[in-house]
Amino acid sequence: MKSCAIVILNYNGEEMLKTFLPSVCAYSTYDVWVIDNASADGSINFLKENYPQIQQIKLTENFGYAGGYNEGLAQLKGQYGYYILLNSDVEVSSDWDINLIAWMVSHPAYAALQPKILSWTAKDTFDYAGAGGGFLDAYGYPYCRGRIWDTIEKDNGVYNDVIDVDWASGACMVVNATVFHQLSGFDSGFFAHMEEIDLCWRMRTSGWKISYNGSVEVYHLGGATLDRASPKKMYLNIRNSLSMIFKNENSSRFFRIFVVKSLLEHLAALSFVIQGKKEFSRAVLDAYRDFKLKKNSIEKFLPELNGREEVKRQGNVGLVFWHWKVLGKKSYGQL
User: Fold this and answer.
1) DSSP character for 319?
2) Does the keyword Glycosyltransferase apply (predicted)?
3) What phi and psi, each to the nearest 5 degrees, are found at residue 114?
4) Quick one: pLDDT at residue 222?
5) Which residue(s) pair with 56 in the sheet?
6) Residue ranges per structural domain of the chain
7) Which CATH class is domain 2-220?
């Protein structure tokens, strides 16, 4: 078995591959694979002509982020000890993969790890996705060191440490391959967004730890596939968040969370109508409708601990939106 595969999921991302593959090939030690979600652009030909050393897995349709990785990694099962799942719009730095895998090998209690993720367009600033390590508040809302809600911090070296977190960002995350497959990977029903948080939640419930290592830096463009401020992304985030919480919390706890989230998000839908952004209001309502339609088919996650103890949530914030919007706490340090 080989140590690690760097696995990039691609869908119509020829321009992203042209921009970001040079750094991946220049600075990476381990095998690089591209899983292609049935792209209709020139991605496959570009790889064949310019990067013949990169191995490809060609899927027959677009399975999304979650399904695409599940389908592709199933073909690599048993060949590698670790996967580094890397977005196609990420620039990496020298020795990034060696350092990440060396840390994982020396810390076998951990199932996932992410580096410091900075913005590719403003490299002194954190990226929205993962930033300096991800947490969940008491209602399942994600936040990060370096990013609270929509407020992004500059990187001043405060988050150069190594800490336990609640989730690792799918923009660049190392996963223990055995644990990934044991837990059936991502939830393919999510299609895209929140799937890595759900997977990390299941890892923690199963007794595995998640870490952030700020000594390794990568740079993420973000929004290459779906704009962060799009109704479609809002729909997926809300629908998938409800599914994730329903799956991973007990019924009474889910009900309490659902009441709060439903109130906040329906008030947001009303606000969007007042602002003339009816497509965003519709995204909220559609997300709740579709969650309710599929709720009875969602299976509660039942972990197999095998002697391990459940790893509790690291975040210690009640409702992060309240702290950010009402109390004016715009940085992690203020929380």
Assistant:
1) -
2) yes
3) -130, 150
4) 83
5) 34
6) 2-220
7) alpha beta
